[in-house]
Amino acid sequence: MSQHPNRFAFPDAPGDLLGAHISTRGGLPTAFERASVIEATAMAIFAKNSNQWVNKPYTAELRAEFAAKRCVAPVMTHASYLINLATTNDLFHRKAAAALIDELERAEQLGIHAVVLHPGAHMGAGVREGLDQIARSLDAIHAATDLRAVTLLETAAGQGSCLGCSFEELGRILDLVDDKSRVGICIDTCHVFAAGYDIRTRDGYERMIDEVERFVGVENVGAFHLNDSKKPLGSRVDRHQHIGEGEIGLDAFAFVLNDPRFRRIPKVIETPKPVEHESDRRNLATLRSLLCA
């Protein structure tokens, strides 16, 4: 077991940090009203339209309102789905790098500590070349900015040429990045299950964490996305399901929630929302029922 404390933990949090990815419909500050309804103690949002390269800058009034209404300490943003730092297209790569800089700057302006990023897809260039390019891209982004907001590379389900579907791949990126203080990882339970990590049993869960420790370091896990999976183990298909209603079941979530190595690390759901508040409340209630006293 790692002897290093988790550098992303919120040590002063009164309890565990559970919440959801929350809509900002009606403006960014409205997310806190929704967070209160579901009694979230952690949350994730999009800092801008996730399907556009360029968005309007924040106004001073919006930043002030966001700060005034903030009622949750750990807030993360999720970077645009358009960003692919491993792309083989030079124009798209320049756009991706500029977009991630914008995401990090927006997080900084809002007082948000982390941006969760899908590592990218190598588009046929090969795994090693893709991982190396992601690391070089992060180095260039870090050199161009002086920010406290960090990038958390999210585990991938393994579809197509997507990178980061193993902790060995994520570990290579972290090893290659010069400023390691500005990167960490986010573990998505649905994605790791789809990638072939069988976390349904205690032994399987511990084997995964052993791999996390070997390649990444437990202290570099900055967040969890807690999602059940509609698809079976090793499917390499990313389809989220309500907690306990998919192929993963409840035990894996109890392992995460009660693992002292990840205490006070933000954990958010990205489960379906046919009825927004009702669905989030139900899934969070299920998770809270798994917490040991």
Folded structure, characterized:
This protein has 293 residues and is an alpha/beta fold. It has a single domain, classed as TIM Barrel (Alpha-Beta Barrel), CATH 3.20.20.150. It is 37% helix and 14% strand. It contains 9 helices and 10 strands. α3 (90-110) packs across α4. It starts with 17 loop residues before the first strand and ends with a helix.
Quick description:
This protein has 293 residues and is α/β, with parallel strands linked by helices.
Structural class call reads: alpha/beta
The CATH first-level class comes to Alpha Beta
Q: Specify the CATH homologous superfamily.
A: Divalent-metal-dependent TIM barrel enzymes
* Proportion of residues in helical segments: 25-40%
- Residue share in β-strands: 5-15%
Poorly predicted residue ranges: none
Mean pLDDT: 96
Q: Quick one: biggest sheet?
A: 8 strands, parallel, barrel
What is the number of beta strands? 10
**CATH architecture assignment:** Alpha-Beta Barrel
Counted by DSSP, the helix tally is 9
Do you know the CATH topology? TIM Barrel
Q: Give the count of structural domains.
A: 1
Characteristics:
single chain; 293 residues; alpha/beta; TIM Barrel; two-stranded antiparallel ribbon; 10 strands; 37% helix; globular
Task: Reconstruct the topology from this structure.
Layout (H helix, E strand, L loop, with lengths): L17 E4 L8 H8 L4 E4 L14 H10 L5 E4 L11 H21 L3 E4 L9 H18 L5 E5 L12 H10 L6 E6 H6 L7 H14 L5 E6 L1 E2 L10 E2 L9 H7 L9 E3 L6 H14 L4
Parallel strand pairs: 1-2, 1-10, 2-3, 3-4, 4-5, 5-6, 6-7, 7-10
Antiparallel strand pairs: 8-9
